[in-house]
Amino acid sequence: MTVKAVVMAGGKGTRLRPITYSIPKPIVPIAGKPCISYLLDSFYNAGIKDNIITTGYKFDTLINKIIENKYNDQNVLFSVENEPAGTAGSIKIISGFLDDTFIVGSGDILSDFNIKDILNFHKKNNSKITVVLTEVKDPSQFGIVELKDNKIVRFLEKPSESEKFSNMVNTGIYVIEPEILNYIKNIPYDFGKDLFPRLLRKNVDIYGYLGNGVWLDTGRPNDLIKANQIMIDRYGNNYNDEFIKGKNIIITMSKFDGNLISESYIGNGIRMDKNIKIDNSAIYDNASLEYNVDIENSILMENVTVKKNTKIKNSVIMRNCIIGEDSEIVDSVMSPDLSLQGKSRVYNVSLASKIIGDDI
C-alpha cells in the first residue's frame, strides 16, 4: 500500500485571533515547532513521504515556513485555493493526484498519533474510509459519533448539550480510498456536515478508530499555552539542579545563575538578568528579560523585550513587543510590534493597537 498524505491548512483560525492576524494557525509554534510539524512528522514516522498541503489564508507565509523547515526527505506539493472549498472540497480539487490509499489530517490541530496503527486498522478491515477518533470532556465544538462494532452509525456536528449522545469526537484525521471522492458532488463541501451524512445515507461503512497519542484543538490562546505544556512534557529532558527543574526543552544553554526555569521551552539567544522566574511557559528566540521578571503559563514569541519588575501570567505576547517596567499582564494577548508603557496593568484583553496607554 503506497500511501500519500493530505494536510488541510487553509483555515483562518478565527478563534485564535489576534494571533492569527499575523500568521496562519498551522505554523503557530508549539514547543519550538510549527503546529503542522507534529502531523508531518507522524506521517514521516509511518513511512509516508509524499504530502500535499491545501492552503488558502496567508498561503505565502505558510509555504515559506514549510520550505524553511525542510521536513526530512519528504516531498511536499501545495494546493492554493482562491476561495474556501471546505474540508472535503479541498481534497476533491486535488483528486487527480490521489490514485491510491491516502490519509488526511488537519494542519492546524495538534496531533501526534501512531499513524502506522491507524493504517493497519484501515487495511485489516478493508475499509473505504476510516475516521480517527478521540474522547474529550466537552464535545460541543466537534463532531461526535456513535460507534458500533468499529463502525460509525451516527454522526452529529457541534452538538448542543441536549443533543449530545457521545464524548467520542472526530479528530479530522481520515484514511480514505480514492472511490470515496466520487461522493463529493460540489464545492464547497465539508466532511462532517456533508460527506459523512451522505455516506451513511448511501450505506457506505465508515470505520472509526480510537487514536493513540496527543490530540488538541489549539483554537484559543489558552489552548495554545496548554499545547506547549503538553509537548514540553512529552519531548522535554528531565532536569533537577539548582536553576532548572522538571521537564524542559532548552535549545541553547545560557547562564541561568540566580534564575529558576521549570517545565518550559527556552529558545536561542535568550538574554536574562538576575532573579528571573519562568514556569510552564515558552520563550522564543532572542527574547530579553530584565531583572525580576516572572513569566508563568505564558508564551513569548521572538524578539520580545520584558523590562524589570514585570509579571506575565496566562498570556501570549507576539513577536517584537516591548513590555515596560513594573507592569502586569494577565489572561491577555498582545499582537506583534506593540510597545507597552511602564507600570501598565493589562487584564483579560486582546491588544492590537500600536499605541498603548498606562492603564487598560
Give a written overview of the molecule.
- Helix content is 19%, strand content 34%.
- It is an alpha/beta fold and 360 residues long.
- It folds into two domains: 4-216, Alpha-Beta Complex (Spore Coat Polysaccharide Biosynthesis Protein SpsA, Chain A); 238-356, UDP N-Acetylglucosamine Acyltransferase, domain 1 (3 Solenoid).
- Strands 14, 15, 16, 17, 19, 20, 22, 23, 25, 26, 28, 29, 31 and 32 form a 14-stranded mixed beta sheet that branches. It has a seven-stranded mixed beta sheet with strand order 5-4-1-6-11-8-12, sandwiched between helices.
- The longest helix has 15 residues, at 221-235.
- The radius of gyration is 22 Å and the shape is elongated.
Q: Key features?
A:
360 residues; alpha/beta; Spore Coat Polysaccharide Biosynthesis Protein SpsA, Chain A; UDP N-Acetylglucosamine Acyltransferase, domain 1; 14-stranded mixed beta sheet; elongated
